[in-house]
Amino acid sequence: MSYVSTAGEFTRDQRYIASRITADGEDGYPVEAGRYRLVASRACPWAGRAVIVRRLLGLEPVLSMGVAGPTHDARSWTFDLDPGGRDPVLGIERLQEAYFARFPDYDRGITVPAIVDVRTGQVVTNDYAQMTLDLSTEWRAYHRPGAPDLYPEAARAEIDQVNKVVFADVNNGVYQCGFAGGQEAYEEAYRRLFARLDWLSDRLARRRYLVGDTITEADVRLFTTLVRFDAVYHGHFKCNRQKLTEMPVLWAYARDLFQTPGFGDTVDFVDIKRHYYEVHRDINPTGIVPAGPDLSGWLAPHGREELGGRPYGAGCEPGPLSEAETVPAEHTPLA
Prior knowledge:
This protein has a domain at 155-331: Glutathione S-transferase Yfyf (Class Pi), Chain A, domain 2 (Up-down Bundle). The chain is 33% helix and 5% strand. The chain has helices at 45-57, 96-102, 128-137, 156-171, 173-178, 183-204, 217-226, 229-233, 248-258, 269-279, and strands at residues 36-40, 64-67, 114-117, 122-125. It has a four-stranded mixed beta sheet with strand order 2-1-3-4. The two termini are 36 Å apart. The relative contact order is 0.15.
């Protein structure tokens, strides 16, 4: 399976399933406790957003989660982490089965995160950007007491604008570097990426969070790229002007979020590295997974408290993870 663009510049296919799960059920999928299952992989930054938001909002009791393994083939993500290689709730071996159950001729990417209707076994949506916004706005009746408002109405325009440029230049920008099929396309993506990281460093030098004085959707979206930067993007995707650890403001900001319950406790560095280095064989033909980097720095003091702000606003941190959803100790520096 090839990932490097034959056209030079990498262009992401953004044709996602647009069905939404809403409080009024306008698309035929009303918010209901226990009806849906979030399928994610801890390897994937787009899925990582949904995992973090679900945990921050305390939706675990009403929206179950299936975790696919870190690697996949051309067909789809598989549930090889589960006994017998099947998701225990959906009973399927491959996420592809849920897509085909609704769209037998589905011809786009079988992507995570995806939300599946447990009753029918059919995928509802894989629109990751809208998915997390809906978890914040449409699922409010099921938010835990003290849940943060990750998409406050008064700040939505600013959050949307920050998200737009961060997606274009950073979240997707690292992929445009890594999957570029020509020198010119790679260097253009590289320039945009580091120019935006410099812009983010300037912005975050004066404020603890990207928008306002609490964590928002914008911080979640940036974090899932930053936490993978040194482990994957710096070397594997040739984003090598600097490591994250060599960008003082962004490194402190990322550590601040990592040490905030709901963020770092969802991160599995082993799965992250296995996915990129084993799956992208046109970039890494040997499939050898690097032994580094040293992860202990993620727990170092960050000093960002001096900028003020409260992570959860007037709320409080989420409770402990269930045993079933705890990242293996050997996969994280938090143990």
